[in-house]
Design a protein that fits this description.
Elements lengths: L10 E4 L21 E5 L2 H5 L5 H20 L4 E4 L10 H12 L3 E5 L4 H14 L3 E4 L8 H8 L7 H12 L3 E2 L2 E2 L32 H13 L16 H14 L1 H4 L19 H5 L5 H13 L5 H25 L18 H4 L5 H13 L4 H15 L3 H11 L5 H12 L16 H7 L20 H17 L5 H9 L3 H20 L4
Parallel strand pairs: 1-2, 1-4, 2-3, 4-5
Antiparallel strand pairs: 6-7
Helix pairs in contact: 2-7, 3-4, 6-12, 8-11, 11-12, 12-17, 14-15, 15-19, 16-17, 19-20, 19-21
The structure holds flavin-adenine dinucleotide and ligand DLZ.
Length: 522
């Protein structure tokens, strides 16, 4: 809709799709008499990478609900819907259109979650000749400057070091200067698999029936993006802050207790297991990470959840999530171009379709298509692992990841994918590549029992492609990774292999890579 011109306007406050936080710094000193909000659904954000229909619907529905909430609170919101005939199609073009009509004195925005968007907004403000007041994003517990202070002067900042500093500074799970329970990290108690009996019945994450606003969005996404990946039938994500809080309560009540123990386990037909499914609402800022941390700590203090679960959950949010964001802003823009292992393959089609005889990939991609969700170990030790062992270009894996996951935003996807899972950054996020054979997947899941490939075999027609490519990866990259923690041990195992077997592994790996490259599309 074209808003009426407003001769009295002071600040036009831009609220982006992942900034849906009523306590955002952009609302500090907001005066409804002279300030207004602009929210923009723009085609550019929905198409700069192809995006899962469910992800598109989540952003648009959550944005519309947030708009309504702001209006109920008496704020003027200039909302551009995707279907509006005068929608100019990008942040820059919409900012120009709105500024032309509303004539604000200044623009206000919180730091975006994407370096590309930050540049676009800065450039647009400059072109319009308007001051841009860029406020800090208070959603995060560690600001970019505080991260810089922690990282400065260290040869390499590891998550574990960062986590301990932040836990101590914020007094989370602390007994004075010591961690509650005496240990900082209970990672070793987070690695059980389910065994032959499987996981049993697990209460799924609380789902939310689409209301009228969401139904309109679902219809629009299906109509506007028929060729986007994924499907919408199972859309049940939280789309408001109230729903996000209910989803957190549901996790704390029903799944946190076993979260720690089974954090790394996988099971056919169980997409969520004991995980929170809160990343998407956290990343849209519908949920405050402090609430998630406080809720988990309270569950421990009241005896409702054990320390390995609560510490594990706190480590993910206070440790990994904040660390990853810090790395992103410290390293961008150069980070996106890193490719430490010179990986050059395109992304194979099976990552989009799930059409493969490999049960682990088929099940993981199948659940992505249905839910735009996979849990950490599926991302790292199935999908990410296979892409790295094949040698897919790390930035392309990140782009695919942005396409397929509801929770992907540039700041969080890029370091996790290019860094942690592909080792494209050569050791900034992690100290070594997460390389493993099919035996790891067999140990942690029941996928292999449903697969025609044998995880123990590296050669032969029934050899597991993960296992073949694992040995080939070590062979190809031995000089680059030899120094990494535990890598020497893995390379020593390779060197113990019979030379003829190593030649056969190389031949089979080349065939697998050629087949995947021939099948690639985007
Ligand atoms: P849980 O397993 O229940 O964990 C709780 C919370 O911890 C999550 O909701 C999330 O907010 C946080 N968390 C845990 N690990 C990380 C991490 N490494 N980085 C950031 N937050 C973390 N997370 C995203 O939010 N967006 C992404 O685009 C993303 N991409 C990833 C790509 C790869 C290759 C890998 C290995 C991990 C990625 N992660 C990403 C981290 C993690 O896998 C997801 O946050 C988690 O699986 C989301 O599911 P959940 O909410 O059920 O999480
Ligand atoms: C992911 C996404 C999509 C699909 N659409 C929009 C949109 O129309 N408007 C918007 O403000 N944000 C959208 N987003 C999120 C952005 O791509 C991007 O992740 C954030 O703006 C970075 O802060």
């Amino acid at each position: 809709m074209t808003p009426p011109s407003d001769p009295t306007m002071r600040n036009l406050v831009l609220v982006l799709g992942d900034q849906l936080d009523a306590n955002s710094a952009v609302f500090d000193a907001f005066d409804p008499a002279v300030d207004a909000v602009a929210m923009m659904e723009v085609a550019e954000e929905a198409t700069y990478v192809p995006q899962h229909k469910l992800r598109l619907a989540l952003f648009f529905s959550a944005m519309r609900h947030f708009r309504d909430k702001l209006r109920e609170a008496g704020r003027t919101v200039h909302y551009t819907a995707l279907d509006d005939p005068d929608n100019a199609g990008s942040f820059a073009a919409e900012m120009a259109r709105l500024a032309g009509i509303l004539k604000p004195e200044a623009l206000v925005c919180a730091q975006p979650g994407d370096w590309r968007v930050l540049q676009a907004i800065r450039d647009a403000a400059k072109a319009l000749g308007l001051p841009l007041l860029m406020r800090v994003d208070r959603h995060f517990l560690v600001g970019t400057e505080a991260f810089e202070t922690i990282a400065a002067g260290r040869k390499a900042l590891r998550m574990e070091t960062f986590y301990r500093i932040v836990r101590r500074d914020l007094g989370v799970l602390m007994n004075g200067d010591k961690p509650v329970g005496g240990q900082w990290n209970l990672d070793k108690e987070n690695r059980s698999s389910f065994g032959k009996g499987g996981p049993g019945a697990i209460p799924p994450p609380l789902g939310f029936e689409p209301d009228r606003t969401t139904r309109e969005v679902l219809e629009m996404v299906e109509r506007r993006f028929p060729d986007s990946p994924g499907r919408l039938e199972r859309f049940d994500y939280p789309v408001t802050a109230e729903q996000a809080r209910a989803a957190l309560d549901d996790f704390l009540k029903h799944r946190l207790e076993k979260f720690g123990r089974y954090q790394d386990a996988m099971a056919v037909g169980q997409p969520f297991l004991f995980h929170a499914r809160l990343s998407a609402v956290l990343n849209l800022h519908l949920l405050d990470p402090r609430e998630a941390i406080d809720g988990a700590v309270a569950a421990f203090e009241e005896g409702r959840a054990p320390l390995n679960s609560v510490e594990g959950f706190v480590r993910q949010i206070l440790g990994w999530r904040e660390f990853i964001r810090g790395v992103y802003w410290r390293e961008m823009p150069g980070y996106a171009g890193l490719n430490a292992l010179d990986a050059e393959l395109p992304m194979p089609a099976m990552f989009w379709t799930g059409e493969t005889e490999m049960a682990c990939i088929r099940h993981s991609v199948g659940q992505l298509i249905d839910h735009a969700y996979a849990h950490h170990i599926q991302r790292l030790m199935v999908l990410g692992l296979f892409a790295m062992l094949l040698g897919v270009r790390p930035y392309e894996v990140h782009r695919w990841h942005m396409s397929m996951y509801a929770d992907a935003i540039d700041w969080v996807s890029l370091p996790n994918v290019l860094g942690m899972s592909q080792y494209g950054d050569g050791g900034i996020v992690g100290s070594k590549p997460y390389a493993a054979s099919g035996n790891y997947i067999d140990k942690m899941s029941d996928y292999c029992s449903q697969c025609r490939f044998n995880p123990k075999k590296a050669t032969g027609d029934d050899a597991c492609p993960v296992t073949t490519l694992y040995w080939d990866f070590l062979d190809r990259n031995r000089d680059r990774i030899r120094g990494g923690r535990h890598m020497g041990y893995q390379i020593a195992n390779l060197d113990r292999k019979d030379p003829e077997e190593r030649r056969e592994i190389r031949r089979r790996a080349e065939r697998l890579k050629a087949e995947c490259a021939a099948d690639a599309y985007l």
